Amino acid sequence: xxxxxxxxxxxxxxxxxxxxxxxxxxxxxxxxxxxxxxxxxxxxxxxxxxxxxxxxxxxxxxxxxxxxxxxxxxxxxxxxxxxxxxxxxxxxxxxxxxxxxxxxxxxxxxxxxxxxxxxxxxxxxxxxxxxxxxxxxxxxxxxxxxxxxxxxxxxxxxxxxxxxxxxxxxxxxxxxxxxxxxxxxxxxxxxxxxxxxxxxxxxxxxxxxxxxxxxxxxxxxxxxxxxxxxxxxxxxxxxxxxxxxxxxxxxxxxxxxxxxxxxxxxxxxxxxxxxxxxxxxxxxxxxxxxxxxxxxxxxxxxxxxxxxxxxxxxxxxxxxxxxxxxxxxxxxxxx
Amino acid sequence: xxxxxxxxxxxxxxxxxxxxxxxxxxxxxxxxxxxxxxxxxxxxxxxxxxxxxxxxxxxxxxxxxxxxxxxxxxxxxxxxxxxxxxxxxxxxxxxxxxxxxxxxxxxxxxxxxxxxxxxxxxxxxxxxxxxxxxxxxxxxxxxxxxxxxxxxxxxxxxxxxxxxxxxxxxxxxxxxxxxxxxxxxxxxxxxxxxxxxxxxxxxxxxxxxxxxxxxxxxxxxxxxxxxxxxxxxxxxxxxxxxxxxxxxxxxxxxxxxxxxxxxxxxxxxxxxxxxxxxxxxxxxxxxxxxxxxxxxxxxxxxxxxxxxxxxxxxxxxxxxxxxxxxxxxxxxxxx
Lengths: 335, 335
Description:
Two copies of one chain form a homodimer. The longest helix of chain A has 24 residues, at 311-334. In chain A, helix 5 runs parallel beside helix 6. Chain A has helices at 13-24, 26-31, 56-60, 75-81, 101-110, 120-136, 153-160, 175-187, 191-200, 209-212, 215-228, 248-256, 311-334, and strands at 2-9, 34-43, 46-49, 86-89, 114-117, 141-142, 166-172, 239-240, 259-267, 271-278, 289-296, 301-307. Chain A is globular, with a radius of gyration of 20 Å. Chain A has 13 helices and twelve strands. Chains A and B meet through helix 7, strand 11, strand 12 and helix 13 of A and helix 7, strand 11, strand 12 and helix 13 of B.
C-alpha cells in the first residue's frame, strides 16, 4: 500500500467536488494500492490541516473555509509549508496572467510535489515553463480536467491512441456556447434570448463574454497545441471568433442543408470559429455536451463526447489523473 | 531497450494489416523503448520464420504464405515450437466453438506468451478459462480489437475511466447493420435493397447472417460483460434480435418523431435489438461507424465513436494493446 499525501488548493465548486469524490472513492483507491490522504484544504480564507485526512462531511457544508480553518496560511505560503506528495489546484482561472494558480503550481512543482489541476490559466500562460519545472523536479503535471470536462481527451490521445500519429483535433470545447447554439437552432430564437435562458439556468455567467467570445475555447486550443502537438503557442496565436454574430436565420439555412453551426476549436490550425458541421456527424452533439474528433494516421477518426462541466464530473477527471500518476510513474522511469 | 519477440498467427485481411503497421511503427516503438521483432508469421499453409524480423515488403504482396513459407509448421505446433514473447492471434473467428483461435491462445498462454487478438470467438466461448490461464502463467491477454474495431472502448473503461464505477454500456457494435439501417432511413428503401448495396460495396458478406441476425453484436456483448463487468455469461444468455425485420416504414415513422432505429447491444442487460435512439444523441451515428455510450457514476455519460472495422484500423488496436502490455506489466506487479 502506497501512502499519498494530498493538498487541495481552491475550495469553490470544483474544490467541493474534489473533497466529495476523494472521500467517496477511498475504498476503490485502496483496492488499487493507494492510500490517499487529503492532509490539507486551502482557500482564500485559510487552511484546514488534518494529518489523518480532512473530515469531508464537516467541510462540505461550508461555502468557504472561514469557519473551519485551523490555520491562517494561504496560497504559496501554505503550499510550501505543508508536507504533501501531490497538490490539486482548482482556484479560479485567469488566462491573461494565470494567477494565482500559476504561482501555486510553481511553488508545488519546485517543492517536488505532483500537480493535478482543472485550472486552464496557468497552462495557457506558461505551459512550457511548468512542464520543464515538473521535469526538473522529477514530478508530474496533469491537467485532463482543463479541456472538455469529463471528456477524457488528453489521456485518450496520450495513452489509448499511443501507437497513432495525431494529425489534428477538432471539437466543441465549450458547453455554454453549445447550449446557446442548440437552443437557437431548435427554437429559431435570437442569440440574446437563448443567452438569457442559459443565464437563468446557470449555464451562462452574468458576464458571458469569456464563453461566448470564444476565449475559453481558445485557451483549450492553446493547451492542446502545446501538450499534445509539441507546439509552443500563446493565446494571441489563436484566431478567435465567438458566437455572438450567429443568427437564427443562418442556423435555419444550415439546418435546411443538413448542417449545424457549432463553435469549433481546431488544433493545429489554431482557430476558434462558428463552423458548419454535418448533422449526424459524431461531433455535432447538442445541449451542453462537448465533443472532440481526433484525426489519426491508423485508427481513422475517433470521436469522444461528454459533459463539458460539473463539479463531480471535473473532480472525476482529477481523480483519473491522480491514479494515472501513480500507475505510470514507475514504468515511465524504466522505458 | 527491451527486445520483444512477436509471432503472428493468421494472415488474412487483419494479419496483413498487422504486418504493415508493425513495420511502419518500428521507429515509434523504438522511441518508446520497445524493440519489436516479428520473428514468425503463420497461416494455414505454413510459417515464415525470420530471426531478424520478417521482411514486410516481401510478404505483404502475397495473399497466403504458400509461396514464401520457410517451414511447414502450422497452428499449435508452430506456436509451441517458436520462441516468442507475444502472440498476435488473427485467424478467422468462430463463436460456436472458438477454433482454431482457442487452441492457439491456450498453447501460447500455457507457453508463457502474452496474447493480443482481434478474434472474438475464443473470448466468447471461453473468456474465464483464458483469463485464468493468462494469470496462472503470468502473462496478459488483450483484446481491444474484438469490440468496436478502432473505437478504444475497453482501454477507455479500464484505464481512462478507472476512477469510475461503470453502470452500463450501450452502443452500436456492428458497422454492417448500421450501414444498412442508415441507408434504409436515408433512401426509404427496403432491407433487401440496402443489403444488396452493402454486399456490392463489400460492407456485407455474401452470407450476411452473422452480422444482420445480431450474432456478431451479441458476441461483443458477451466479451464486454465478462471482461468489464465481471460477469460470467455465454452467448446463449444474450437475448438477440437482428435487423431483418426492420421496415422502411418503421424507420420513417421513427425519423418523423425525432428518432433513429439502431441495432443496440446493452451490457449488463444482455440484449441485442433494434431500438429507438434520439436523433442528435451521441450514439446515433451513421454509416459504418460504431459507437458506445458508457454510463458512469462520476463522469456522467461518455460516448466514443470510431470506424468499426478495417485492416489497418484493427491492426492499430492490436498495436495499442501491445504497447499497453509493456507499459503496464511492471506497475501491475507493484500495485
